[in-house]
TrEMBL record:
Signal peptide: none
Lineage of origin: Bacteria, Pseudomonadati, Pseudomonadota, Betaproteobacteria, Rhodocyclales
Protein name: histidine kinase
Organism of this sequence: Denitromonas iodatirespirans
Coiled-coil region list: 221-248
Catalysed transformations (reactions): ATP + protein L-histidine = ADP + protein N-phospho-L-histidine
Keyword Glycoprotein annotated: no
Matching SMART domains: HAMP (SM00304), HATPase_c (SM00387), HisKA (SM00388)
Amino acid sequence: MSFRQMLLAGFVLIALVLSAAALQGLRVLESFAQQSRAGADTALGLTTAAQQLAQRTVDMERSARQFMVLNDPVLRQRYRDARRDAESALGHFSRAAPATLGGVADAWRAAADQAEAAIEAPADEAALREALDRLHRINGRLTVEGRQWIALQNARLLDTLEANRLRLAWQVLLALLVAAAVAAFFGWQLARPVKQIEEGIARLGDNLLESRVDVEGPSDLRQVGLRLDWLRQRLAELETDRARMLRHVSHELKTPLAAVREGIALLDDEVTEPLADGQREVVDILRDNAHLLQGRIEDLLDFNAAVFDARRLKPGPIRVDEFLNEVADGHRLQAKAREVDIALASEPIAVEADAGKLGVAVGNLLANAISFSAAGSVVTLRARRASGQIHIDCIDTGPGIDENDVPRIFDPFFQGRRQGATPRQGSGVGLSIVREYVQAHGGRVLLLSGDGGAHFRIELPLTH
């Protein structure tokens, strides 16, 4: 799947999960609404039936008593018509709950038959009165039990609503969890290759060309990874060609330069003939510039060797406090000549690193700090733990770094505008070598802002 297809698939799956939860909720609500409507209709029917049954019972009692007095067949027919109307009301109770209200309805029918039988025997007025009283009691019982049945149905409906609410809440929660899991899965599937591409670009920017750029994920992002790896190989080839050309040019320059220096030496020794004062001055200029050119060529070779050696570390355990003492001891004579003190402050930290290359990096920083510091000043060299890293700081009180020079201070052969008390004759590769060796250890070197002087920091990952 491509990046777009995977993104679309993630959106579709999340939409389907949430839509299923919404449809389930809608179905539950619709079912509850139907049950509620049915319960309301039944309750209304029972209430109406109870009122109708009470009215027809009164009509039956009136017709029966009048028939007992007048013995008019029309009144007996009215009694039967009223009972027939009452039977339709009894049907509501029988349909509602045959096990409870239905049984009471059957008792009502039996009492109505007893009253009708008493009408057929006019002399049995007591039996008629008893049957009519029984009908009224049964009406009251039906009304009470009808209300109880309605209350029971409402309670059951509320229980059903609560159960459905809890079930719906769990379903919605499950849908949200599934949607979150789907989103997290697709997010991880999409974020992982993007991060791999970002790390690959960062390695290319740091000139770490040995590691292959391997991207896992959607097909189009994998294709981007392949193009980045092709770019890595191309950059590695160009870097190899550059280093090879630099070595060849440097060596080719050293051969004729050696001949030039030999010729200058012969002239200076007056092997051919004595030199006039003007000629002596020209020879001195030639000799100084030949030495300067020789130094530049050697600096080129040193920087090229540093870039090459930075990829071949020989790490081992280092006690940082002892390590800094050794580096400082190597620069005591330079500091004494400049009348500069070296202040050391280090925690007892152990780090896994190449002592030789790290010593060159720290030594270059310390040498620069001493060179740019005025007589009587102090150069601070310290180390401490910080957020899973070790920070090695080199701080001086010299003229500092010009703001315009900060972006290029670690570039090869770049020299800043500000100079120390004594102008330096370096070529500007020292800080570049520091950066190469520190990056080879998986760290970085920074120039921190300060009120005065220069503050360089080496950040290395702690292995334990």
